[in-house]
Amino acid sequence: MLQGLWRFQRQLSGALLPFAARSLALETFSPSAHVHRANYGSAAEERRKFYQDVSISQGEGGLFEINLDRKKLKTPGGKLFTVPNEALAIAVATEWDVQKDTLKFYTMHLTTLCNTALDNPTQRSKDQMISAALKFLETDTICYRVEDPPRLVELQKNEWDPVMDWIEKRYNVVIGSSTSIMGPQIPEETKETFHQHLKSYNFWSLTGLEYVISQLKSLILSFGVIDRHLTVDHAVLLSRLEEEFQIQHWGNVEWAHDYDMYELRARTAAGALFVHLSSESSTVKRKLLQD
Prior knowledge:
291 residues; alpha+beta; ATP12-like fold; ATP12-like; two-stranded antiparallel sheet; disordered C terminus
């Protein structure tokens, strides 16, 4: 059955339609420099484009900056917007470069994730982020199984069990599944293994991973995407397996369903890309950004 769902839902997952970007500030280089602020909190808010050229430059400590005309991008907290490598800088600059007459801030996932990593508004440490990520394991989407109807039971087994088998072998852990509302009892050894693995991520990568986990409601599926075992499209469909099953039986509001699916794919893809780009240490050849 999933193959039918899969063919129906399969679309390009590389598009980066980001979630609502946060407010930022731009500071000019002129002697009478002043700060221009653009506040945008809702996903639907837009603003008329106020720049022509987008470029990147390397500043102090080898960090890369984003320039809109002659203005340097700053974070909502007032920090200079800097990223650790050229690859991520080009990706963020591209988000700004592809904007047309109207800036659609909700299409700037990477910009927003960078703002979060730079400002760390909740002032969390890596250990706190790791603990939050591990809590998802206790309520992981694919750990909870239904007992009825039989066709959904079979669908969950056929589609989720292979992913469970993969992650248990990949990390040499035991997770299991359960039909109980309490979920499976996750061994402490498994939690410690994942804890040690997550410690290998830098703060920026953890920011992206946490975002992917929050979209899929699954640590297991998120690891599948980050480890390139699952495509974004496949992981999203697996995270919505029960909902897709119900839709096949009862129908749906087509435009709303398609929009939600597209949004979830885009957010997941952006988070996964952010993880990989945040881990990139090499520089890439600089090139002009074009429409």
